[in-house]
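As a warm-up, study this chain.
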Amino acid sequence: MNTTNWKNQSKRILVATLSFLMLQPCPLVAQQPATNDEGADRHVGICDWMVLKRQKLGQFALARQLGADGVELDMGGLGQRETFDNKLRQPDEARHFRHVADSLGISIGAVAMSAFYAQDLTTRDNYMALIADCFDTMDSMGSGPVAFLPLGGCGNGWAADKQKRAEVVKRLHAIGEEALRRGKRVGIDTQLDAKGNIRLLKEIKSQGIAIFYKLQTAVENGWDVCADMRRLGAANICAIHATNTDGQWLQNDKATDMRAVNQTLDDMGWKGWLFVERSRDTTMVRNVKMNYGANVHYLKEVFGLSYPAPTVALDSAGRPRDYVETIVQRSQKVTDKLGITYTVEGRNVLNIVANRYFKLNDIYAERDSLKKNGEKEKAEALADSRLYRSHFALEADLAMYLTPEEIETVKDVMTFNVVQVTYDAQLDMIPTLKDEEKRQIMAWLKEARELAIDAESSKKKHEVFGKYKGRINNYLSRRGYDLTKEREAWYERVKARGGKL
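Now compare it with the structure written out below.
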């Protein structure tokens, strides 16, 4: 089975398993709190169009993996179409989507008409039909009562253009009244500050229209976010896009003091959904899991909302706190490399790796204790036995969450990527290596890696590789290579291209 099929099958199995487990008590594992906090004043969600899952079933599994409570589901693009590219208009498709969302415990916090970031509301003669399509989708999907309508497509100057503004107000009044009739509320996104938004809402004269507040707008205009929200008032804010523009994660963004925002919302008595739209780290802008996982995790931490606990417990009991923190940081290098640190699966993988380090420490500590008591032979034999018996548990445990290729990455990170570095160096030093020689070198390096994973220190890990490098050199010498000459020629080539050995 190829990797793509394996991963697709694994995802199908994961969705089916999670759906089943949502309905079953598990006697072996303590029950975890639901992702979506029952009775919580606030919930955190992701925007499906921003995580590249617009109207795709995978958005619900992704939201669960990221620890989000729900999604802001988009209506689809417009472009030159008369209507949204909305497949949820089909009853069977909508039922399928809703079933998967419910099975995974993921709410649809709001439905977005993000197409209006680019489309001009005032030039769409069928705007009420588009709004009706959105409301129908909200009903069929069992979403929350808020719809998102950005006014970006109206242009930057619409608010100052009397004629354009009058048309915007007229249409939003009609939209708001229809929203009220259907038990909805439409949150608009403008470029106005609190004073300007309050004035606009008074002109619209419909309780069916509110502000879908966007932190990015306030930051970009240099406004005090908290002061602006207080002035706008809780009743006028129906939902929040709680992120800045792309640049860095919320936890690293000095322009967005989320703890101050939390306190402000507490003071205002505001309840509702906060959605992660942007705040991606531009050094890894395409890494959906890392970017959105980090922001969801941070928002939940700041707002005091529950985050799914890992099913794999960290074996930290009775261990010094500083030591545990060091091991966790070391283990996080694995999940950082895989890009899953801020996901539920990432927390499980981190704990599996950390627990392996703890296990190795226990084995070697017991060995050293026996040696001090003069039982050297017993100490070494017992350590070897326990290393052998526990060695394959690491890969077996990781296989519950990772593909074979990802497990290879875990092993490489735990052994400082020596396999690939050494292999690349061998090929660079001897460009004439035959295919069978390359395969043999790689096989020995991976064999060394299996032993190095269980070594007690970085020094011992490198010693293991050193022995196998000697074996590789002997092998190449027997095959007729003059390693001294090959190394000298390699040195000259590296020097010529400005490098060092």
